[in-house]
Design brief:
single chain; about 750 residues; mainly beta; 36 strands; about 10% helix
């Protein structure tokens, strides 16, 4: 695929590093892109997994960087939004790259950016792993990659999960890919059975027990040029400030790209997920040892769009240019079983006062169980339950690369696939229920000098209930880049009726009926910069309120890293969160409420959380580095023992990475965690449910070898101990957990 060009970029930049080292020491301090949690300096995917395992980056950041690394960015054709997605770059860096490209005609070797003073050497080296260097060989040259992965938890007798991914690029603009999995934990062949009943009302779903089942979640064929592109298959797409349409997780998306991403899963899954049905059984199907028996998880992925997307990226005008995109999707979704309901029996799922058994999700019976002793599945995902038919487009006028105005819109509807079943979604599911839904909005940007301004306003429409058929949302963002610093200020308002499942703007993770960008108004200030050439600062302060509940909340982040010497880099991180600034004291919760109101609904958590983390990294020689980290967390917990104090958690890390030879990589890591330091398991009920003090130790070692730069063999062995005295840990099987992961990569 793009591995050869990326290796070429890194090799060329290493050659330049020695000559640039002295200049980089004397140069002005560089800025760090505020979107990513740390300065990203990696060579390959293994380095990204290391950052994720050490909690140095979030899962969203990891997904974005992994997709970016596999797809690559071509400096010769990338637009402003694509370049800004590269780690560590500011708008000032991006505009300097575009200005150099326009003046020179082409960039060629990325090292030219350093020689011309466009980028400092450390930034150029850091983005090299994400770049495609244009190939000077014939245009019909073909590159490809085939990746096979499997993982096994010892003690699980079933065939292990597997993933096979392949991607080929040829004829310069043709891109083809596929991603297939073998999963074993998902129920099969879901049907409707009107002869069964669900807690007193007629009709229920039935399904077969989980068994090995191949799936093809990702595939695509695309032809992409600097002027236009077309893609058939699975893809990601986004525009503007992500208020109307965004499935990309990028900060500034503009267009579409192929979706071929599958992820490892690191948490064992409970193998027995059944309950007794309407006939009392001598004991629960998951009683005894079966309750705590765990198995290997399947590979994971997220659903984007699946269909056809096409776009004209640059239609030249006397002044500026136009872009036009159209997209269609016919995606099939899995669904968590409790997100379903019968709309005939329960026409209004939001009416909690009148909600009874008829508004609960229909039972899912096990078709393979003894009819005389029926059982039903619990806490399961149901495969291929509904189709989403979606269509939309974007039309924008660009005065220049920093100033534009555009319109984006889409409409969608759901079609459930289970024959003879009357099904719809619950009100807390991510997608609106009742019928068609969608959104339309207008966005714009304006850039001058050191400042950029962005804004987007949108309205949604849906078919839910008797209230307003939609809502309103608006977001504004201002970025200032000057000297050694970058500051971003953003303001947002999302109406309670703005039910848009494809909105991905700046928002907080608290959800309203399954959606983040809903019932939220707030402002955020973000800063990144360098002081005295060695002190790297990142800060964020976010204040917001839920307009319907009037609960003011805050989130504060501060991170400092110091390049004390060439081989020593300590850092200190601070986090503070408060779910209701009006409430003080500790007699409340921060994570999950265990208290209910008079109607049985869980009370909202209004507590606070403080986290402090220290980390130090040592790089004694070029081929070896190791790091140590300690994290301490104080948070409110509504358990009785914490009525006057915080609950305390801790995590300690140690990891080491070595490259004895260029193609050979070794890595080891240890993570020790205690949740609820000093907590007691006081009742059998708490023991059975797994509350109380938890203590785990997770150690793994991995090695990979790149054979002649065409074939990579990677092995990883994990051991995880559950050390606490809870029944859920003492009876857990297996304990300790022993894992083996295998990855084979072939390139051509």
């Amino acid at each position: 695929m793009t591995s050869r060009p990326r290796r070429l970029a890194r090799a060329l930049l290493r050659c330049l590093s020695a000559a640039a080292a002295a200049a980089s020491v004397l140069s002005a301090p560089v800025l760090r892109a505020a979107e990513y949690e740390i300065f990203i300096d990696v060579d390959d995917e293994d380095d990204l997994y290391d950052l994720l395992a050490a909690d140095a980056i979030s899962q969203d950041t990891f997904d974005t960087l992994l997709e970016l690394m596999r797809r690559g960015v071509d400096l010769e054709t990338a637009g402003r939004e694509d370049l800004y997605a590269l780690p560590n770059l500011t708008y000032e860096d991006v505009d300097a790259i575009l200005a150099y490209r326009a003046e020179a005609g082409r960039i060629g070797n990325p090292a030219n950016l350093v020689a011309a003073g466009v980028l400092p050497a450390d930034k150029a080296r850091a983005i090299a792993a994400f770049l495609i260097v244009p190939d000077t060989r014939p245009k019909v040259e073909t590159h490809g990659e085939v990746r096979y992965r499997t993982t096994h938890l010892f003690g699980d007798p079933r065939v292990p999960p597997m993933a096979l991914q392949a991607r080929i690029r040829t004829a310069r603009h043709l891109d083809m890919g596929v991603a297939a999995t073998l999963e074993r934990n998902t129920v099969r062949d879901v049907r409707w059975d009107p002869t069964r009943d669900s807690e007193g009302f007629a009709g229920a779903l039935v399904a077969r027990e989980p068994a090995p089942m191949p799936r093809l979640p990702k595939f695509h064929v695309a032809w992409d040029t600097p002027k236009w592109g077309i893609l058939a298959g699975t893809y990601r797409i986004g525009f503007g400030q992500r208020l109307v349409m965004d499935t990309t997780s990028r900060y500034t998306p503009n267009g579409f790209y192929a979706d071929n991403l599958l992820r490892w899963s690191t948490q064992a899954t409970r193998r027995c997920r059944e309950s007794e049905a309407n006939v009392p059984l001598p004991e629960s199907p998951c009683a005894g040892d079966a309750r705590y028996r765990y198995g290997t998880p399947d590979f994971d992925w997220t659903f984007g769009l699946r269909g056809l997307a096409a776009g004209a990226k640059h239609i030249a005008l006397p002044v500026g240019w136009l872009q036009a995109y159209g997209f269609f999707s016919y995606q099939t979704f899995d669904v968590y079983q409790y997100q379903l309901r019968n709309p005939t029996a329960c026409p209004d799922p939001t009416n909690d006062a009148e909600e009874g058994p008829e508004c609960k999700a229909p039972w899912v019976y096990n078709r393979d169980a003894d009819p005389a002793e029926p059982t039903r599945f619990s806490f399961s995902n149901l495969p291929r339950m509904y189709d989403e038919i979606l269509g939309g487009g974007n039309f924008s006028y660009f005065y220049d690369r920093r100033s534009h105005i555009g319109v984006t819109g889409y409409g969608a509807t759901l079609r459930f696939r289970v024959a003879d079943a009357d099904l719809d979604l619950q009100d807390w599911a991510k997608r609106p229920y009742g019928g068609p839904y969608g959104a339309v909005g207008i966005d714009g940007s304006y850039g001058v000098g050191w400042a950029d301004f962005f804004v987007e306003a949108a309205g949604s429409f849906d078919s839910m209930g008797e209230g307003p058929p939609g809502g309103f949302a608006v977001i504004a963002r201002q970025t200032a880049t000057f000297g050694r610093h970058e500051i971003e200020l953003s303001e947002r308002y999302y109406d309670d009726d703005y039910a848009n499942p494809y909105a991905g703007p700046i928002s907080q993770p608290d959800t309203d009926d399954g959606l983040r960008a809903r019932d939220e108004a707030g402002g955020r200030l973000k800063y990144t910069g360098v002081v005295k050439k060695r002190l790297f600062l990142r800060g964020l302060a976010d204040f917001w309120v839920e307009p319907t509940e009037k609960r003011p909340k805050t989130q504060i982040r501060l991170r400092t890293d110091v390049q004390a010497t060439r081989w020593l880099r300590p850092g200190l991180w601070f986090e503070y969160d408060d779910r209701d600034l009006r409430v003080s004291g500790h007699d409340t919760c921060y994570e999950t409420s265990t208290m209910t109101d008079l109607e049985g609904e869980p009370l909202p958590c209004t507590g606070s959380r403080i986290l402090i983390r220290g980390r130090v990294r040592f790089d004694p020689i070029r081929r070896l580095y190791f790091s140590l980290s300690y994290q301490h967390e104080w948070l409110d917990d509504d358990e009785e023992e914490y009525a006057d104090s915080f609950r305390q958690d801790l995590i300690a890390y140690a990891q080491i990475t070595a490259r004895p030879l260029d193609p050979w990589r070794l890595h080891a890591r240890m993570r020790y965690e205690i949740e609820d330091i000093g907590g007691d398991v006081t009742t059998d009920a708490l023991e059975a449910e797994g509350f109380g003090e938890t203590e785990t130790l997770w150690v793994y070692a991995e090695t990979s070898y790149d054979v002649l730069r065409h074939f990579v063999i990677a092995l990883r062995y994990d051991v995880r101990f559950f050390l606490d005295a809870r029944e859920a840990s003492q009876l857990r099987e297996p304990n300790p957990e022993h894992w083996l992961r295998v990855q084979l990569i072939g390139r051509f």
